[in-house]
């Protein structure tokens, strides 16, 4: 195959040993800079994608996809509401619940938290808490026995284990001649769960639905109905359809509403990190400008000879554009390979760093999870690759244009 002479000369300039070693060093720095910038961008976006995916999965292992509740906190005839909801093709399960705040006391330890009354068999179809039980089972919750399932951190803070007693104080008080007395009930710990999300592990407790109704004096009513969908991302659409079907007497929310601030913050952070790291790639790419300007200055005689032999200014421009583009492509491909490789092996690299430093980089109390998840998405990698290549191409335009304007007579005057 016969290559155009511009390609052959441009590649030859890359392979040839230059008289000025400083130019070669600057060129190498430019390639390494592009590679590091691209790799950093891929790793950071992969970590943010993984963090968002992991937290979403953990939230949905405890929180339902859609919730139907009454404005006054009392939803009567929940079975009828569940039947209306299950008419939607995307709804695969429904379960009633009773929500309330409580104060837990055991062995002199006092902690506040959320008390959720559930129907164990139905609840297990809506969320995955049953799959995260460290001890006991959700099915062990029986009406009238006043058993309780605690998050692992809440159990640790209360210093209780299986079979221990926990006293639950509720905000609903009892009026007596001596005044308002808080209502309380003693429960037996029959299960401990861990969903690896500190917010739930440290504050959530579950009791049987009927026990919660008795404790909250709700009678046969419940706080609402929790729904599971075949696709969590369709929750806003299903919410809108159910709100229209149920009318204004019920309030319908989905998991994107209850966690909107968190996911919005993550999305904003991802965009800002993309902009910042793209600027780093841009700085590295435009290092090619100084590299190519020095190459053009170093090759003035060669350019003049080529022009004398009949090479057009556009051909001279192509030679240096090819040289700069190859350097940009090399740095980009090296960065993509290195970034993807690191992102796919973060589960090995981060623990190794932690062992070397002798410290924990992430605390579950602060970051919700205690390790760095990673989710390499093809769309992000493709976008980063295209942006890096475009920046490298733009960086070659000015030096190549300057080379094309070289006058042979001026260049050869002192040769």
Short note summarizing the structure:
By secondary structure, the chain is of the alpha+beta class. Helix content is 56%, strand content 20%. The chain is elongated, with a radius of gyration of 32 Å.
The count of domains is 2
Overall radius of gyration: 32 Å
Q: State the helix count.
A: 16
Sheet with most strands: strand arrangement: 2-3-8-5-7-6
User: What's the total count of β strands?
Assistant: 10
Mean pLDDT: 82
Low-confidence stretches: none
Q: What distance separates the N and C termini? A: 36 Å
| CA-based shape | elongated
Helix and strand element order: HHEHEEHEEHEEHEHEHEHHHHHHHH
Task: Describe how the helices and strands are arranged.
Layout (H helix, E strand, L loop, with lengths): L4 H11 L5 H42 L3 E4 L8 H9 L4 E16 L2 E10 L1 H7 L6 E4 L10 E5 H7 L6 E12 L2 E15 L4 H4 L2 E5 H8 L7 E6 L5 H12 L4 E4 H4 L1 H39 L1 H9 L4 H32 L1 H12 L6 H4 L10 H27 L3 H4 L4
Parallel strand pairs: 3-8, 5-7
Antiparallel strand pairs: 1-9, 1-10, 2-3, 2-6, 2-9, 4-7, 5-8, 6-7
Would you give an account of this structure?
By secondary structure, this protein is α+β, with helices and mostly antiparallel strands. It folds into two domains: 5-58 and 262-410, no CATH class; 72-248, no CATH class. It is built from 16 helices and ten strands. It has helices at residues 5-15, 21-62, 78-86, 120-126, 152-158, 198-201, 209-216, 235-246, 255-258, 260-298, 300-308, 313-344, 346-357, 364-367, 378-404, 408-411, and strands spanning 66-69, 91-106, 109-118, 133-136, 147-151, 165-176, 179-193, 204-208, 224-229, 251-254. Strands 2-3-8-5-7-6 form a six-stranded mixed beta barrel, surrounded by four helices. α2 (21-62) packs antiparallel against α10, α2 (21-62) crosses α12 and α12 packs antiparallel against α15 (378-404). The longest helix is centred in the N-terminal third of the chain and has 42 residues, at 21-62. The radius of gyration is 32 Å and the shape is elongated. The two termini are 36 Å apart.
């Amino acid at each position: 195959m016969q290559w155009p002479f511009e390609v052959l000369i441009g590649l030859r300039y890359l392979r040839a040993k230059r008289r000025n070693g400083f130019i070669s060093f600057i060129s190498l720095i430019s390639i390494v800079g592009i590679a590091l910038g691209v790799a950093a961008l891929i790793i950071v976006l992969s970590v943010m994608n993984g963090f968002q995916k992991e937290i979403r999965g953990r939230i949905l292992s405890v929180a339902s996809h859609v919730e139907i509740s009454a404005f006054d906190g009392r939803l009567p005839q929940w079975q009828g509401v569940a039947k209306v909801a299950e008419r939607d093709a995307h709804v695969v399960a429904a379960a009633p619940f009773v929500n309330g705040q409580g104060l837990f006391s055991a062995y002199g330890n006092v902690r506040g938290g959320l008390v959720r009354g559930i129907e164990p068999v139905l609840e297990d179809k809506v969320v995955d808490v049953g799959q995260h039980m460290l001890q006991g089972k959700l099915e062990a919750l029986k009406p009238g026995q006043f058993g309780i399932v605690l998050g692992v951190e809440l159990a640790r803070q209360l210093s209780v284990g299986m079979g221990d007693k926990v006293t639950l104080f509720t905000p609903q008080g009892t009026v007596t001649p001596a005044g308002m007395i808080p209502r309380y009930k003693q429960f037996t710990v029959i299960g401990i769960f861990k969903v690896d999300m500190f917010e739930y592990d440290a504050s959530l407790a579950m009791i049987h639905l009927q026990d919660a109704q008795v404790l909250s004096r709700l009678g046969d009513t419940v706080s609402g109905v929790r729904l599971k969908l075949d696709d969590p991302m369709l929750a806003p659409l299903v919410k809108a359809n159910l709100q229209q079907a149920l009318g204004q007497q019920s309030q319908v929310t989905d998991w994107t509403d209850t966690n909107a601030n968190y996911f919005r913050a993550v999305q904003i952070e991802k965009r800002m990190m993309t902009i910042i790291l793209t600027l780093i790639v841009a700085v590295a790419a435009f290092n090619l400008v100084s590299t190519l300007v020095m190459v053009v200055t170093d090759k003035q005689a060669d350019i003049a000879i080529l022009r004398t032999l009949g090479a057009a200014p556009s051909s001279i421009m192509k030679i240096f554009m090819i040289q700069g583009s190859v350097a940009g492509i090399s740095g980009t491909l090296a960065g993509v390979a290195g970034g993807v490789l690191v992102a796919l092996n973060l589960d090995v690299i981060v623990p190794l760093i932690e062992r070397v430093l002798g410290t924990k980089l992430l605390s579950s109390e602060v970051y919700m999870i205690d390790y760095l998840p990673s989710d390499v998405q093809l769309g992000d990698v493709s976008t980063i690759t295209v942006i890096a290549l475009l920046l490298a191409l733009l960086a070659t335009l000015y030096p190549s244009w300057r080379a094309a304007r070289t006058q042979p007579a001026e260049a050869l005057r002192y040769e």
